Amino acid sequence: MSYRDLLKGPMKGVSWAPIRPCSNHSALLATASSIKQSRIVKPNHRVIQLEEFLGACMTDPSLVNNPDADRLIHGLRDTGYNFNTAAADIIDNSIAAGANRIDALFDMDTEGRKIVTFADNGHGMDAEQLHAAMRYGAPVRNNLASLGKFGLGLKTASSSVCRRYTVYSRRSVDQPIAKLAWDLDHVTEVNQWEMLREPVTDEEEERFEDLVGERGTMVVWQKCDRILDREYSAPGGTHEMNALKRKAASLSRHCALVYYRFLDGTDRRERDIRLTIDGEEVLAWNPFYLEKSEQVLDEKHQRIPLELSNGEVHEATMRAYILPRAKELSKEEQGIARIANHAQGFYIHREGRVIHSGGWLGVFGGVEPHTSLLRIEFDFGHELDDAFRVDVKKSRILFDPALEDLLKEILQPIYREANNRYRNKARQDISGGGGVDHSASNTNIDNTSGRKEPRGESYDEKTGEATIQNRKGRVVLHNVEKSDVDPGSVYIQPVEFLPSGDLYEPAMYPVGGSDVLRTGVRINRSHDFYTKIYMRAQDNGYSIEGMDYLLWALAAAELDNTNKDLEPLFEDIREEVSTNLKRLLRVLPLPDEEDLNGGE
Fold first, then answer.
1. Neighbours of 151 (CB within 10 A)
2. Considering Cα of 236, then 238, then 242, then 248, what sign does the dihedral take?
3. How do 455-460 and 374-380 pair as beta strands?
């Protein structure tokens, strides 16, 4: 009904005072409120409610355009969550509700139907609060510093994994358990934003009492069509069960980092929680390994004031840690440090929870081995959410270009220091080995289980023939040179030259001086690829290892697939590859002293 219609219809005979022009809704509300306060009524005139007046004047039904429930609720499944970030969003809600005990359980029946349950002992909700929480775009939390943010996480995170999710909750033991569910199939059927309110069964009540206790919340994911990356020919079988166990293990590793401050009882920055996944307690993993690393950012640069568009100023904090090289750590310590190319860079914390791990976020270039020891701890509170453009999953952050420049200026000396520490130690290792260091490659190949390679059976030194068992059966290799190589270079053996002139050739090496043969590769130091590429990369351990692994894998594949008829073909392939590489490298000069010293 329009404003004009009201004047002719329901508004006839209504007392009202002239209203001054209003430029916005708030001003109109204030004016209407003052009119209502005065209540000037003429005889035989009625007084209308303020809501009736405003609703009639300001609502045009033709402009109301509600979204299609079926299409939108399914479209919101694809907001960028993966399983780990979706599960973490549910755990965020538990922490925001004051829980100190959170459990996640994975179940699957014999027909492959998967169920994931999250239970906590937080404050819980009554029926009215649960109804509000289940709304897409739930009310803003009273505590803005909580880990929840947009009022969407419970719904979008859950539906990204499953087509039905049910929430059970209560605030005290003397209250009934409130229960509501979103079932996407039901929404499709009725094409309405309609939840399901079903009675709590005896089995559900028993499970709630067992997992939650007197008060708290339980979230159950059912119809989990997106929990695993593939479908299995035998639903509910061993392979699918193992895949579900791997998913649980992956979630445990994810949470160990994301909530490490909450899980570490010695870290007083956040309150303690106990998180279990399938009954196994999740132990904190601090990426900065404080027992072994060195904090290298001076105190004056550890606080960064940031001004928001409204003029408010809030601080972010930052620390920088350089870890020891992997070779300086024991095997157990290496497992704690987890030094890897992708692990360098920023670890962003929002309200104590890690929302981004690894990478340089535009401050520096891509990740590379020489800075793999450097990790940055960066903290901010909810007040800076808009400044960092935190997304609904709380798993993405963007730096303003001006902040990028500031961080680069602050961190550039530390970035250079981490680079130098890595390079200087690498030079010491290599100079002790007489050039390019292949020891890491040999160690890793030896430690890698399940390698695809032939089994060496015997070797006749007089005839130069080796008998191996490969994919073609028992095969005799000719012109095999048996080399009593150092045990440390069983797999990768650089030689001064190869008679063929090729870059590499397969080899069968003895183990510990015995007649047992092991697959290896000889690499020709005289070939241009070695002198021009390997030598330039001698300070870059990852590049050396990468090239070693490629050549060893080619040699192993050749030995595992060759026979009398195919042996000449593989020789021709090696010759052609080696010749092409020489031709391609003709224009590249030999490395000079600057190249060999890392460009310094």
1. 17
2. positive
3. unpaired
Category of 53 on φ-ψ map: left (φ > 0), alpha (ψ -120 to 50) or beta: alpha
- Compute, in degrees rounded to 10, the torsion defined by CA atoms 139, 145, 147, 152: 20
Q: Helices 50-58 and 25-38 meet at what angle, rounded to 10?
A: 150
Tokens for 541, please give them.
């351990």
What is the CB-side half-sphere exposure of residue 513 using CA atoms within 13 A? 0
Angle, CA of 216, 221 and 190, to the nearest 5°: 110
Q: 360-367, long-range: CB within 8 Å, 24+ apart, which pairs? A: 361/397, 361/398, 361/399, 361/404, 362/399, 362/404, 363/399, 363/404, 363/407, 363/408, 363/411, 364/408, 364/411, 364/415, 367/341, 367/342
- Cα dist from 284 to 261, 289, 477, whole Å: 7, 11, 53
pLDDT digits (tens, 9 = 90+) for 173-229: 999 999 999 999 999 999 999 999 999 999 999 999 999 999 999 999 999 999 998
Q: Which two tokens stand for residue 285?
A: 């993993």
Neighbour tally for 167: CB within 10 Å: 23
Token pair, residue 138, equals 């739930």
Distance of CA 359 to the CA centre of its chain: 12
- What lies within 8 Å, CB to CB, of 255 at 6+ separation is 84, 87, 88, 91, 263, 275, 277, 282
CA separation for the pair 348, 353 (Å, rounded): 8
Amino acid making up residue 185 = D
Cα gap 555→377, rounded to integer Å: 43
Residue 470 three-state SS: strand
Who has greater pLDDT, 244 or 420?
A: 244
Which residues 6+ apart lie within 8 Å of 239 measured at CB? 232
What CA–CA distance (Å, rounded) separates 371 from 361?
15
Q: Which of 566, 461, 549, 444 is nearest to 508 (CA)?
A: 461
Question: Rounded to an integer, what distance in angstroms lies between the CA atom of residue 63 and that of residue 391?
Answer: 29
pTM over 0.90: no
DSSP string, 229-257: SS--SSTTSHHHHHHHHHHHHHHHHHHHH
pLDDT category, 493, cuts 50, 70, 90?
confident
The token pair at 475 is 């095969």
- The whole-angstrom separation of Cα 194 and Cα 182 is 8
Residue where the block lists tokens 């030689």: 495
